[in-house]
């Protein structure tokens, strides 16, 4: 393909010079460009393909970047990036040093608001619209584009509820493709389906919230979308446009298997077929969780599973398939997920509430107020803890230890491997009389032989992985793998001891006394922020017992970590095998 039109566009100003008849051809070129790059560089695919026409129409009709355009989540903004001056560098998307996979304010003036977590767009756009009013910028437009799964989140409703009593110059566009990462859920989804079928004409909830509602219209009908945006541009106050699109539009496989092609990994750009992955029986941690909860739930009828909109990503889908009445996808509703788990726990159920570490940030008050203060035995499984790689700054799960460690009643555990994850899940459902947070990372474990008989883990106990008389390395979680390798590579492996504390709370104080008394220099290592994390806990212990051992705290520094492979990011911050080896050699 020649990219006759796409190649002429370095900014939306070039786009606005195109004849309306040429825009359809541009849409075809843009779609193919996205497919070609994502096929080899990976990333989110389906969402961007679904909004190609909308993206062109928005930049064609509105005066971006003066007008503020906010993409909710931002995983659908690849077309936006390409049309706003980033075509030549789009191949660096999500790579170390390259552009971000999400809109980012310091990357482009066209990225009005940094995103990554869902359902923020309406509040942000409303904030900008109110600011414009206060500044007397009466012609400035503020547009939030939000998906059907994201608009069902509490935060989106909060924004709509406020906007409806303002006269802010706000346009909310609902991009309704009836799917999030997994099929959308909930009563709102049913309502939207009825709107599309034309059976819900009278009780329009958006109109009830004082928005000027229009739609639903076909979001792939470019002339119609342009015409409707042009009309809406001249209306004042909060407006709402409902468009219907197809996720993955333009790539057959992506339309047919929208879940897989949300972020498909590498695929053949001409056939759409996924590239075969190297066969490996080593499981992903999410699958260890997914299979283990099914195994446990078969034996223990009080177990229930909860995910806020991540059945596939968390692998709770296995339980949802087999025991749909006991496994719940509550939509993008982390706060609700946590409080619902608390409610279930009051009634004697054993809720496993699986939330990505980064998304649990949204439910912080619920953890304290609804779970910890009442000491309810909710089992939190925090997937994607630690560096997640290419999703970057908005998605790294590197703050959970700090934000959880200060909460009374909460037990915090980080498994070193698959067996430990299974065993702590087993132990937790036996009854701990406390809530517990179990954090584990994105990606694969370490062994094919992970499905071993369950063993109980004694709460608050660490383990000695290797003895040695000189330096002691203390770790929690799967970073132990790097440490084991680094110790075996260092100049005097015999001298180095390695302890896996396993519990960040309660700490194994007996083991810690032993470590501080036996060893001179200590190193703590964690895949987490150094502020307030595991190393901080060890330092607090040392201070309270007056130990003076020199202690190096290794982890994620107090700076925003961007995107790149996990290995590259570990190298950047000194958590990879070589950096740990070098540190050991320096200290030995
Ligand atoms: C707070 C939060 N929870 C979960 C996610 C993970 N997530 C990313 S995209 C997505 C689905 C979004 O669906 P929708 O809004 O319908 O947009 P579409 O992908 O269909 O364009 C989810 C659940 C997130 N980004 N933020
Ligand atoms: C955009 C978003 O938030 C999700 O699509 C996220 O990228 C999923 O991450 P995993 O690939 O780790 O499930
Ligand atoms: Mg959707």
Automatic annotation (TrEMBL):
According to the UniProt entry, its GO molecular function terms are: 1-deoxy-D-xylulose-5-phosphate synthase activity; magnesium ion binding; thiamine pyrophosphate binding
Q: Which GO terms describe its cellular component?
A: cytosol
Family, according to the entry, reads as follows: Belongs to the transketolase family. DXPS subfamily.
Quote the InterPro entries the UniProt record gives: Dxylulose-5-P_synthase, THDP-binding, Transketo_C/PFOR_II, Transketolase-like_Pyr-bd, Transketolase_BS, Transketolase_C
Q: Is-annotated flag, keyword ATP-binding?
A: no
Q: What is this protein called?
A: 1-deoxy-D-xylulose-5-phosphate synthase
Q: Broadest EC class?
A: transferase
Domain of life of the source: Bacteria
| Keyword terms of this UniProt record | Isoprene biosynthesis, Magnesium, Metal-binding, Thiamine biosynthesis, Thiamine pyrophosphate, Transferase
Q: Which gene encodes it?
A: dxs
The UniProt record gives the binding positions of Mg(2+) as: 148, 177
Q: What does this protein do?
A: Catalyzes the acyloin condensation reaction between C atoms 2 and 3 of pyruvate and glyceraldehyde 3-phosphate to yield 1-deoxy-D-xylulose-5-phosphate (DXP).
């Amino acid at each position: 393909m020649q990219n006759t039109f796409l190649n002429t566009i370095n900014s939306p100003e070039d786009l606005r010079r195109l004849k309306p008849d040429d825009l359809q051809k541009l849409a075809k070129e843009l779609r193919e460009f996205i497919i070609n790059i994502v096929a080899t560089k990976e990333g989110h695919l389906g969402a961007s393909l679904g909004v190609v026409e909308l993206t062109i129409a928005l930049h064609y009709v509105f005066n971006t970047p003066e007008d503020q355009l906010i993409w909710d989540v931002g995983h659908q903004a690849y077309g936006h990036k390409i049309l706003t001056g980033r075509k030549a560098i789009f191949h660096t998307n999500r790579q170390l040093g390259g552009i971000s996979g999400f809109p980012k304010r310091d990357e482009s003036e066209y990225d009005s608001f940094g995103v990554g977590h869902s359902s923020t767009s309406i509040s942000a756009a409303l904030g900008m619209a109110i600011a414009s009013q206060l500044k007397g910028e009466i012609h400035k437009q503020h547009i939030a584009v939000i998906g059907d799964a994201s608009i069902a989140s509490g935060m989106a409703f909060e924004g709509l509820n406020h906007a409806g009593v303002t006269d802010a110059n706000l346009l909310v566009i609902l991009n309704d493709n009836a799917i999030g990462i997994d099929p959308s859920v909930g009563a709102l989804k049913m309502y939207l389906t009825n709107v599309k079928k034309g059976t819900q004409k009278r009780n329009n909830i958006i109109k009830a919230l004082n928005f000027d509602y229009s739609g639903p219209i076909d979001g792939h009908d470019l002339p119609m979308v342009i015409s409707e945006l042009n009309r809406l541009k001249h209306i004042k106050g909060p407006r709402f446009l409902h468009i219907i699109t197809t996720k993955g539009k333009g790539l057959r496989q992506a339309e047919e298997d929208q879940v897989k092609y949300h972020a498909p990994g590498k695929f053949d750009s001409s056939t759409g077929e996924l590239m075969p992955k190297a066969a490996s029986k080593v499981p992903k941690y999410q699958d260890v969780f997914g299979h283990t909860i099914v195994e446990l739930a078969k034996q223990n009828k009080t177990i229930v599973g909860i995910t806020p909109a991540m059945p596939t990503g968390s692998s709770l889908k296995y339980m949802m398939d087999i025991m749909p009445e006991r496994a719940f996808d509550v939509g993008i509703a982390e706060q609700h997920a946590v409080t619902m788990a608390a409610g279930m726990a009051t009634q004697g159920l054993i809720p496993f509430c699986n939330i990505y570490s980064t998304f649990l940030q949204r439910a912080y008050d619920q953890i304290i107020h609804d779970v910890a203060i009442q000491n309810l035995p909710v089992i939190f499984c925090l997937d994607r803890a630690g560096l997640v790689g290419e999703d970057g700054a908005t998605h790294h799960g590197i703050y959970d230890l700090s934000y959880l460690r200060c909460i009374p009643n909460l037990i915090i555990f980080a498994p070193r491997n698959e067996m430990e994850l299974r065993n702590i899940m087993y132990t937790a459902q036996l009854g701990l009389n406390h809530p517990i947070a179990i954090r584990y990372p994105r990606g694969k474990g370490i062994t094919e032989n992970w499905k071993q008989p369950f063993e109980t883990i004694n709460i608050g106990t660490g383990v000695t992985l290797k003895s040695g008389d000189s330096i002691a390395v203390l770790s929690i979680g799967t970073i132990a793998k790097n440490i084991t390798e680094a110790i075996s590579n260092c100049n005097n492996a015999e001298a180095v001891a390695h302890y896996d504390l396993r519990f960040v709370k309660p700490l194994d104080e007996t083991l810690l006394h032993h470590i501080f008394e036996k060893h001179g220099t200590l190193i703590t290592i964690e895949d987490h922020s150094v502020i307030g994390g595991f190393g901080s806990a060890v330092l607090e212990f040392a201070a309270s017992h007056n130990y003076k051992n020199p202690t190096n705290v290794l982890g994620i520094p107090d700076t925003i970590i961007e995107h790149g492979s996990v290995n590259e990011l570990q190298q950047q911050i000194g958590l990879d095998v070589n950096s740990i080896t070098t540190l050991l050699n320096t200290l030995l």
